[in-house]
């Protein structure tokens, strides 16, 4: 599946239940810490910060977009079962040119 925009990707992740929306976070105190907390588990959610204090409505921040294999595959347009093969085919030529 290919996406025309980041919004489309976020909508698809929301449908799968892998998105958490945080409203009213402070950009300088909370966003970084909450992002780190979301990374403590292998299957942490995509986190969408909305209504950030001190910013106009509509300014949002997204974090942990590709923290799971499923979301990485989704973002790259691959089925999850093909992700390892695709990454292998991308990385091996890079490693061979460095040797």
Description:
This protein is of the alpha+beta class and 99 residues long. It has one domain (6-98). The protein is built from 4 helices and 3 strands, in the order αβαββαα. Strands 1-2-3 form a 3-stranded mixed β-sheet, sandwiched between helices. Helix 2 (31-38) links the parallel strand 1 and strand 2. The longest helix has 16 residues, at 83-98. 9% of the residues are buried. The model has no long low-confidence stretch (mean pLDDT 87).
Which helices and strands appear, and what pairs or packs with what?
Elements: H1 6-15, E1 19-23, H2 31-38, E2 46-50, E3 61-63, H3 69-76, H4 83-98
Parallel strand pairs: 1-2
Antiparallel strand pairs: 2-3
| Net shape | elongated
Encode the helix/strand succession as letters.
HEHEEHH
**How does the helix and strand content classify structurally?**
alpha+beta
What is the CA–CA distance across the termini? Answer: 35 Å
How many domains in all? 1
- Main sheet: strands, sense, barrel: 3 strands, mixed
Strand content: 5-15%
User: How many β strands by DSSP?
Assistant: 3
Helix content: 40-55%
Measured on Cα atoms, how large is the radius of gyration?
16 Å
| Quaternary | single chain
Task: Name the poorly predicted regions.
Answer: none
Give me the side-by-side strand order of the main sheet: 1-2-3
Count of helices?
4
Q: What's the mean pLDDT score?
A: 87
